[in-house]
Amino acid sequence: MPTTENFIESLLNKTENYGKTHYTILKLKAANKTADVSSRFLSRSLLVMALSFFALFINIGLSFWLGEILGKVYYGFGVIAGFYAVLSIIFLTMHRSFVKKMKDQFIAQLLN
């Protein structure tokens, strides 16, 4: 019977090692996916910030330029504000489909 006990003990040791290895692999995969998603989020956030500053200064310049053309500076700012009001209304009408696409894209990125 010592061979059966040795066999069972060896089998239990191998099963334990397999479980530990599998757990370690899962932790490493989760860490890799977390690092991937967070680094993409950070880089895209920085890009959005830079583009936002660019758009801000372009819009201020455009507002002053339109104000000169229209005769009063605040007319230029009014035209730009109206443009963004129309853009906001368009965005609000398409908001649900945009959120669904973004959610699907985020889930696909997490699962790949």
Describe what you observe in this structure.
Helix 1 runs antiparallel to helix 2. This protein has one domain (2-111). The longest helix has 69 residues, at 2-70. The relative contact order is 0.05. The protein contains three helices and no strands. The two termini are 49 Å apart. It has helices at residues 2-70, 73-93, 95-111. The protein is mainly alpha-helical. It is 96% helix and 0% strand.
* CA-based shape: rod-shaped
Q: Largest sheet at a glance? A: none
Structural class: mainly alpha
- Report the order of strands and helices: HHH
How many distinct beta strands?
0
C-alpha-based Rg, rounded: 29 Å
User: Portion of residues in helices?
Assistant: over 70%
Mean pLDDT: 89
Question: Low-confidence stretches at least 5 residues in length (pLDDT < 50)?
Answer: none
Strand-residue fraction?
under 5%
Number of structurally distinct domains:
1
Taking the alpha carbons of the first and last residues, their distance comes to 49 Å
Number of helices: 3
